[in-house]
Design brief:
With 334 residues, the protein is α/β, with parallel strands linked by helices. The protein contains 15 helices and ten strands. The strands form two sheets. Strands 5-2-1-6-7-8-9-10 form an eight-stranded mixed β-sheet, sandwiched between helices. Bound molecules: 1,4-dihydronicotinamide adenine dinucleotide and 1,3-dihydroxyacetonephosphate (13P). 1,3-dihydroxyacetonephosphate (13P) binds next to helix 8, helix 10 and helix 11. It is found in: Cytoplasm.
Length: 334
């Protein structure tokens, strides 16, 4: 293995977990976080409060100086690990020669753009890609087996992602379909909210939605994700892979998912601001849902589950009404 200089920009749960993974693999890793006091505390305690059960490897460098972190990876690999809302600003701050992978999953609020579309707008010559797939940060930090997919039009960049993270606990597959990988990652978050709502309602009454409804939502959700992806130019097989079906199953059914937990709490009748305060982490589906729907409408794609979630998140429908609306749709061919 060749040792690589890697910087991870964003010290939340996922950036920290992958920084731990790359440092354990023997790379020279610098993790940047924007909160200087939090980074100083992490330097002393060797823990990130987002991942309270995982020690930070001694060799992992921690900084609140973004320029220093970027310079460290000038010849290596830069990982953008901010939420979707920070991707634009972070990409704009990078030199064009930097090789960059981002981890965020969503459509940008306001513009409705995917990560690769933002990169094309800001840094057309930059070598870029996305790392996605079913992966709770806590499990990766704990060294539990995980498989990811690195997607880029630049084969060398996808190979660099494999070199940075692939190991006996973390497999990294490559893909040449960043559009499909990004659409999967963005839409599954909205669908996970929907499945959380369904599961949260399941004890409300003997005829409440149960396991049958959950399986139907996941399957029809996958169809909805795929319709949008194909309309945006993705390859159909990508949706059967790790970033599509894989991440949808994980996020919709795994209680570590923040998006699923948003759905469970909406089903309890909690207000969205209270839910987000309780979560303490980003739940991208909340911010992406309206933009997923806007993009779908712009290309003439029907996304009824997403539409129901947008109405619920807006406060136009209650949780039970959003689910009832899906059941009241006209019969059609699968
Ligand atoms: N946590 C997980 O298991 C996984 C998360 N992801 C994705 O990774 C992205 C980040 O998620 P997490 O790390 O889990 O979020 P988190 O909520 O744990 O942490 C987000 C961190 O980003 C920082 N941040 C926010 N805006 C920023 C900006 N503009 N510049 C710099 N830092 C900024 C916050 O201060 C916070 O430390 C999201 O898009 C999420 O969907 C993807 C796979 C797994
Ligand atoms: O993307 C994830 C797992 O692959 C994390 O999902 P949540 O953001 O819903 O926790």
């Amino acid at each position: 293995m060749t040792t690589m200089n890697i910087c991870v920009l964003g010290a939340g749960a996922w950036g920290t977990a992958l920084a731990i993974q790359a440092a354990r693999a023997g790379h020279d890793v610098t993790l940047w976080g924007r909160d200087a006091a939090a980074m100083a505390a992490m330097r002393v305690g060797r823990r990130n409060p987002y991942l309270p059960d995982s020690d930070l490897p001694a060799a992992l460098a921690l900084t609140a100086d973004r320029g220093e972190a970027i310079a460290h990876a000038a010849q290596g690999l830069t990982i953008v690990a901010t939420p979707m809302s920070g991707l634009r600003e972070t990409l704009a701050a990078l030199p064009a020669a930097q090789r960059v992978l981002w981890l965020c999953k969503g459509f940008e609020a306001g513009t409705g753009r995917l990560g690769h579309e933002i990169a094309r707008e800001l840094q057309p010559s930059m070598r870029v890609g996305v790392l996605s797939g079913p992966s709770f940060a806590q499990e990766v930090a704990a060294g539990r087996p995980t498989a990811l997919v690195a997607a880029s039009e630049d084969a060398d960049l996808a190979r660099a992602a494999v070199e940075a993270f692939h190991g006996d606990r973390l497999r990294v597959y490559t893909s040449v379909d960043p559009v499909g990988v990004e659409v999967g990652g963005a839409v599954k978050n909205v669908l996970a909210i929907a499945v959380g709502v369904c599961d949260g309602l399941s004890h409300a009454a003997p005829d409440a939605p149960g396991l049958n409804a959950r399986a139907a939502l996941i399957t029809r959700g996958l169809a909805e994700m795929m319709r949008l992806g194909l309309a945006l130019g993705a390859r159909p097989e990508t949706f059967m892979g790790l970033s599509g079906l894989g991440d949808l199953v994980l996020t919709a059914t795994g209680d570590l998912s923040r998006n699923r937990r948003v759905g469970l709490m909406l089903a309890e009748g909690l207000a969205l601001p209270d839910i987000l305060a309780r979560l303490g982490h980003v739940a991208e589906g909340v911010y992406s849902a309206p933009t997923v729907l806007d993009r779908a409408r712009a290309v003439g794609v029907d996304m009824p589950i997403t539409e129901g979630m947008v109405a619920l998140l807006d406060g136009r429908l209650r949780a039970d009404q959003a689910v009832a609306l899906l059941m009241s749709r006209d019969a059609r061919a699968e």
